[in-house]
Amino acid sequence: MRLWLSRGLCVLGLVLLVLGSRIYVKALVAQVLLRNAWQQARQGQAMPRPWPWADTWAVARLRSASHGVDLIVLAGASGESTAFGPGHITGTAPPGALGNVGLAAHRDTHFAFLEQVQRGEQLWLELPDGRARAFAVDSMRVVHESDTQSLSEPGDALTLVTCYPFHAANAGGPWRYVVRARAI
Asked: What is the per-residue pLDDT across 100-125, written as a single tens digit (0 to 9) for each?
């Protein structure tokens, strides 16, 4: 009986480990597939999909040298696309355009590094044609999910949005962490 109980507990532990790490593995694998799509975009292919059934495509590349971040940004910031990488928030300036470019991602995967970001740090946004723009972080703040003012603020900026607090046990709370960076 003890042998079966210990085996059952081991199997249960393995199942819980797999379920708990699923989102992290999914995010890592997706970035590999997205890098392939990014290369296709760099070669001039319009809207290259990372996998045949994808409803999104690579539109930019976000980098932070000080945090070792190199992420492919997807078209749209729906729950489906942000499961795989940061997404461009519809209604904000498109990556590469003048204006306020809004990006959203999950706090526990792609935008986990925002917890460590400091004022003055540089972020880079690269386009498929090779052009890159530098931004310097100038503010970080916590807002209610209904407060979308930071996305409509004027200026040539990059606004990154993720859920808050960073290490909360429950996902999807009402608070958002907003990092604003001005073009330099």
From this structure: 999 999 998 899 999 999 999 999 99
